[in-house]
Specification:
By secondary structure, the chain is mainly α. It has 14 helices and no strands.
């Protein structure tokens, strides 16, 4: 039966069902109940696509995008970008352009972890402009944080340096301490790249005080690099273990393979191989701004 043949009460019941499931989806997301979440999304998708209002579709696709980011550990396929685009289009259908800062951010965030830095930066600039204009401090803080991360992935120290002070100021005013970890992690990376090993350790220690998954690599890698520079292999190995825990962003194979080999060699008592393989992982990490 098509929508035009349904009575208002029937449509109302569909809308109530979608609203309830959207709430359940977010509850499962924040409770890390990913298996339940995937099953719920599968049930919801055909109903939302056929009967959902723009607001309901926007809420659904925002939740699906967030779930996809975590399912793929923030190294995502095109389908997650497509879901993010759908939540933006549904949000645009609501006809409130001043309320699009968050939807544009979601699109940019998906592009960032899909590896399309140019698209990520373009869409994030759009989000940031709306956030600044409308006083959306939370989204502004997210934008400046991840614009700095994108610049770091490009190994653009000048751009990161131009943003890091604003990151710290904005996330502090927004009361988002978990974002301070990334901001100070980026500052620690700048210190390490400048050859200031002690400064890198000090700033990474500040970042650690605010740490939360999944982007602990932003400060863990400066710790690892500083320890290697000081020939403190035990500390470097200890810090490196945090890079491969399940709730951390998935590490690319060019880094992960030698990193796991280094940890295995250390555990087996072969410290010469452990150092060589950790140095190999560190060299790979430098190519994408991890170190």
């Amino acid at each position: 039966m098509d929508a035009s043949a349904r009575t208002e009460p029937e449509l109302g019941r569909w809308r109530e069902w979608i609203a309830l499931q959207n709430d359940r989806m977010l509850a499962r997301y924040w409770a890390f109940r990913d298996d339940d979440l995937d099953a719920l999304v599968t049930r919801m998708r055909p109903v939302v696509e056929r009967w959902g209002s723009p607001a309901e579709r926007a809420g659904f696709y925002a939740g699906v995008t967030m779930a996809g980011l975590r399912r793929y550990r923030y190294v995502v396929p095109a389908e997650v970008v497509e879901d993010a685009q759908r939540q933006l289009e549904a949000s645009q259908d609501l006809g409130s352009p001043d309320r699009l800062a968050w939807p544009w951010f979601m699109v940019s965030f998906a592009h960032l972890w899909h590896g399309d830095l140019a698209a990520a930066e373009t869409h994030m600039a759009t989000s940031l402009e709306i956030a600044e204009r409308t006083g959306d401090l939370t989204t502004e803080a997210r934008c400046v944080t991840y614009l700095a991360v994108a610049a770091r992935i490009r190994n653009d120290t000048d751009r990161v340096s131009s943003l890091v002070g604003r990151c710290i100021d904005t996330v502090t005013r927004a009361a988002m301490p978990e974002y301070l970890a990334t901001a100070y992690g980026n500052e620690a990376w700048l210190a390490y790249r400048a050859g200031d090993v002690a400064g890198a350790q000090r700033l990474a220690s500040i970042a650690q005080e605010h740490a939360a998954p999944p982007f602990r690599w932003t400060w863990l890698w400066p710790f690892v690099g500083a320890a290697l520079a000081q020939r403190d292999l035990e500390t470097a190995i200890g810090r490196a273990r945090g890079l491969i825990v399940p709730d951390e962003q998935r590490t690319s194979d060019d880094i992960l393979v030698p990193l796991e080999a280094a940890l295995g060699a250390w555990d087996g008592g072969d410290f010469t191989v452990a150092r060589a393989r950790l140095e190999e992982a560190a060299a790979a990490a430098r190519t994408t701004g991890r170190l």
